[in-house]
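Action item from last meeting closed. Structure (98 res):
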């Protein structure tokens, strides 16, 4: 089983958030909302993000309503935000063209 990274300290989290367009910290998780042209574009984003998440063995909490995808990233085993969450947020931004 892979090791679980530690939760980010406040300065590291602030630095990561400064580089993550469209993300914020709320309730010990990274949150973002992605809005696409239509349902198909939103679903395509989710499919790509799901493949990235599966490769990293790090899965988001998310929901989809028509063209909007809401995401919360948190490392449950660490009980907070880790480098795994930041990495997946970066991948999601890349997939969304942010």
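Sequence:
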């Amino acid at each position: 089983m892979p090791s679980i990274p530690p939760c980010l300290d406040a300065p590291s989290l602030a630095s990561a958030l400064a580089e993550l367009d469209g993300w914020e910290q709320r309730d010990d998780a990274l949150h973002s909302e992605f809005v696409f042209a239509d349902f198909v574009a939103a679903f395509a984003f989710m499919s790509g993000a799901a493949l990235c998440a599966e490769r990293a063995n790090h899965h988001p909490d998310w929901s989809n309503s028509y063209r909007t995808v809401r995401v919360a990233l948190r490392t449950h085993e660490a009980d907070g935000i880790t480098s795994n969450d930041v990495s997946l947020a970066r991948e999601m931004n890349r997939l969304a063209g942010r």
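Note appended to the action item: The first strand starts at residue 24 and ends at 26.
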